[in-house]
Design goal:
The protein has about 250 residues and is of the alpha/beta class. It has a single domain, classed as Rossmann fold (3-Layer(aba) Sandwich), CATH 3.40.50.300. About 35% of the residues lie in helices and about 25% in strands. It has ten helices and ten strands. Strands 6-7-8-3-9-10 form a six-stranded mixed beta sheet, sandwiched between helices. A four-stranded antiparallel beta sheet has the order 2-1-4-5, covered by helices on one side. Helix 4 packs across helix 6. The longest helix has 14 residues. It starts with a strand and ends in a 5-residue tail after the last helix.
């Protein structure tokens, strides 16, 4: 199945102060596919992910050069509405971070802060989002319970539901299973594979097996450089660069 290009990254550079942490990154991210970003710690994976919804803007002294286009629109255009961008590009973080509110209010939060007042619409979106995050059957009788009262794996799927509620087009995930046990991880991975029917998904993972299991495309970063990108099967079985092979076979990293 040929997917069209959703995100185009062209000669993109990113700096924290004088630290040049992403160097001339160029590659395409395809629509309705899972793209994994892999590489050793400190190689720029999370920084890159956070550039896709301008989360790094919140850090003083950062600057970006080059271009990231989503559906042809330049993310770093000075006239771009960052609030609108973050509606379009949802994010799930490394550790589950539900708000200390009810399960229902966690999912409804984004709708309410975006001015949605129609109760029935909110109820419908909460149910749809929890179903989309494969959590509805487990929590449908507990919607008024605190979101912090459910298990870690359920909390992470609640955070996925919260991200889905505002109907994004792209979902970013920063090592979303790193705090979860193997059973919760397997459920989350299954969910990610299902979600790509509707969303473009970009996931940072330090877990090679996870990248191999769930992603269509893989990009290998090292010390701020994009070393290699391609179909996941190719990257893992016949990488073009020796350094990619050494990383994937565990010789370093």
């Amino acid at each position: 199945m040929d997917s069209h290009v959703r995100i185009e990254v062209q000669d993109f550079n990113f700096y924290y102060g004088t630290n040049h942490c992403l160097k001339n990154i160029s590659f395409d991210i395809l629509d309705k596919q899972v793209t994994s970003i892999i590489g050793p710690s400190g190689c720029g994976k999370t920084t890159f992910l956070r550039c896709l919804n301008r989360m790094n803007d919140l850090i003083v002294g950062t600057r970006a050069e080059g271009t990231i286009l989503i559906d042809g629109e330049d993310l770093y255009d000075k006239d771009l509405d960052v609030v609108d961008l973050r509606k379009k590009v949802g994010m799930v973080f490394q550790k589950p971070n539900p708000f200390p509110k009810s399960i229902f209010d966690n999912v409804a939060y984004g709708l309410k802060i975006n001015g949605v007042k129609d109760k029935r619409f909110i109820e419908r979106r909460v149910e749809e989002s929890l179903k989309g995050a494969a959590l509805w059957d487990e929590v449908k009788d507990r919607l008024s319970d605190n979101g912090l009262a459910i298990s870690g794996g359920q909390q992470q799927r609640l955070c996925v539901a919260r991200a889905l509620a505002i109907e994004p087009e792209v979902v970013l995930m920063d090592e979303p299973a790193s705090a979860l046990d193997p059973i919760a991880t397997a459920k989350l991975e299954e969910l990610i594979v299902q979600l790509k029917d509707k969303y473009t998904i970009v996931i940072v993972t330090h877990n090679m097996q996870q990248a191999a299991r769930i992603s269509d495309m893989t990009a290998f970063f090292m010390q701020g450089d994009l070393i290699e990108t391609g179909k996941t099967g190719d990257i893992f079985t016949k990488p073009k660069k020796t350094i990619t092979e050494e990383y994937i076979t565990g010789r370093f990293g």
